[in-house]
Amino acid sequence: MSSSKFLCILMLSCVFTALPALAQNGAVTGTVTDPAGNPVSAAVVTLSGVDGPSHPAATAPDGTFLLQQFPSGTYTVRATAPGFAALEQPSVAVAVGRTTHLSLQLTLAGVQQTVNVTAAASAFDTSLSSSVVNIDRDRVEELPIPSRNYLTFVTLSPQVAAANPALPHPGGAPSSGSFSFGGLRPGSNAVTLDGVNDDDEYAGGSRTQLSPEAISDFQIVNHGFAAESGGGAGGSIDVETRSGLNRIHGDTFIFVQNGALNGTPPLELTPHKPDENRLRAGVALGGPIQRDCMYYYVAAEQALALGEDANDLSPSTLATINTAIKQYAPLSTLTLQPGFFPTTDQETELSGRIDHDLTDRSARGSSFLADNSLNATLTSTLNPALYNNLSFELAQRRALDRTNTISGAGIFISGVALFGTPWSGNDRRFETHLEFADALSLQHRQHLIKFGTHIDRVALRTGVPDAAQGFFVFANLAALQARTPDFFTQSFGNFLTDLTEVRLAAFAQDHWTVSHQLTLDYGVRYDLDQLRSPLPQAALNISPRLGLAWTPLKSLVVRSGFGIFDDRFQLATIPRLLEFDGTHGLQKTYEDAAAAAVYQLAPAPPIAAAAPSTWRAQPNLRNPCSEVASLGLEQALPLQT
Q1: Residue 358: alpha-carbon gap to chain centroid
Q2: Which residues contact 26 (CB under 8 A, 6 or more apart)?
Q3: Does the first or last residue of the chain, that is N or C, have fewer Cβ atoms within 10 Å of its Cβ?
Q4: pLDDT tens digit sequence for 452-496
Q5: What is the pLDDT of residue 2?
Q6: What share of the chain is helix, strand, coil (3-state, %, to 5)?
Q7: What pLDDT was estimated at residue 574?
Q8: The model's pTM
Q9: pLDDT value of position 151
């Protein structure tokens, strides 16, 4: 029996927030036996969903079967074989990143006989060696969150903590990566969307922002001990979007918020409370294009927020600052204003997905606002026990950041005010990915063996003129009036850089079901990030993995493991090695009297001598990594024996 499934994803996006290990959809595996417990070969096991097509697979000579790469949902499993009665097991749950295990025992055939088996759903997957949390569709729809960012649900996992809000988020919004696994930096997380990488390689957060209406479910993994898990030293989030069915389904909503009943902010020196009006409306619709063959699902969301904001400076402080900066020629025309200033926030999210099933083939598509990507996956069933998954991606991202003020130095008065041109925030970048990944899966008795390779070429062109206009730091208001800054820095040179990075990875692993009580994961992974010359690097990035899941009681699971997880380079840092190498660009820093001289003589060029500040890579630069060991116990309630 030979079949193939083709998955194609087209993404277009322009949300200013825009992939490493290949995420998986759900899978169903198990054995088919006769009444005496002997394996039944060539039995046909069919997985069918509500209002969806059916997917058959034949059992191997040892009676095992494997059905993989299926969307999350509830399915019915039917097993048939000559001489045996058909067996049906309904309500089989499939979730992203999980494998559902079944033991199907056939009975001898009677006249028009079908055996229905009903089994209680397990509270947890006893075969997973890593601690995982699945956020299903019901929780995505019903639980309240402070924003429409679906990644807010990640903090429902006990392994995840909110990141320090004071941490910088280069080139991206804080919400794109505001959580941490095991205390690691938020940029070490790996996010996959419908099986393809969704990481912002420059800023380190998630790239694509989707409406929660488009999310089916997602899985949160705190360091997967399977060797195929990689691409980051932290945890991973595998997200699956919704797909269409044979029936039309969808929803619509509108949220309206008005600040009429809001109180006046207690710390703002304003005569009345600021105005606030928010409107968010959306619609989602899915259904068949051709029954049992082609489906669609689209979700759109539009948000508009109009309001007012004000600084918290007293009139006397504003007057003092305005008088003082008149003495600094480059900012002599700048005046800080009291009272309210208007704020506007507008957001549009549009996604679409098409599934096409023709001789076991399917295709998907989605469209957002300024990231562009073309993704494809070919899943082939070479024989009942051998699967191959080939993935391809071509993606581009353009990002542009601009501040209101782009000329003149920036001034920071510690604990008081920040104005002028900020230190950062006037960046632009163009990021291109070309990615191939292949994984071969072999089901042999109690072993699920996988081999895989991955190559990702990232081309990054950046322009990061941090402190190009100069930046002063004053200790207090009195120092501003005295024109004596403590610190001044300015960058010079060509701020455009071109960087090419080639990421190579390979892994081998075995998922061994020793018994119904014990499962072992063991394997090894190799990662290499090749940077352009003359950047040094170490090539020895071998990561062993070992994990186990032991079920001493049917209500208790012990999960444990050890592994080394190589992180990826955060590309917001690497270009600085090329930008400030002393030839293309450099920084100069002045302190105390030298900084005061620069301020007082402006706009003349700095007269104080200062050695240039340059960036250098350490010898044998290597990927950061984490060494993780864990031991966890999961107990179902109420207690069972």
Answers
A1: 31
A2: 68, 70, 71, 72, 94, 95, 96, 97, 98, 99, 100
A3: C
A4: 998 989 899 999 899 898 999 999 999 999 999 999 999 998 899
A5: 38
A6: 10, 50, 40
A7: 83
A8: 0.75
A9: 83
The 10 Å Cβ neighbour count of residue 119 is: 11
Report the alpha-carbon distance of residue 61 to residue 420 in Å, rounded.
Answer: 74
Q: What is the pLDDT at residue 139?
A: 81
According to the model, what pLDDT value does residue 449 have?
Answer: 93
Start-to-end CA span in the chain (Å): 42
CA nearest to 129, candidates 229, 196, 217: 229
Cβ–Cβ < 8 Å for 461, 497: yes
Residues in the chain: 641
Burial of 165 (0-12, 13-18, 19+ CB in 10 A): exposed
Using the CB atoms, write b or e for 307-328: b if 16+ within 10 Å. Answer: ebebbebeeebbebbeebbeeb
Residue 480: other Cβ atoms inside 10 A: 24
- The ranges of the chain with pLDDT < 50 are 1-23, 111, 120-121, 170-176, 358-369, 641
Classify 482 as helix, strand or coil. helix
Q: How far apart are CA 160 and CA 492, in angstroms?
A: 41
Residue (of 458, 544, 538, 546) closest to 507 by Cα position: 544
- CB-CB contact of 302 with 282 (8 Å): yes
What separation in angstroms does the CA of 252 have from each of 282, 368, 559? 6, 19, 42
* Alpha carbons 353 and 242: distance in angstroms, whole number: 8
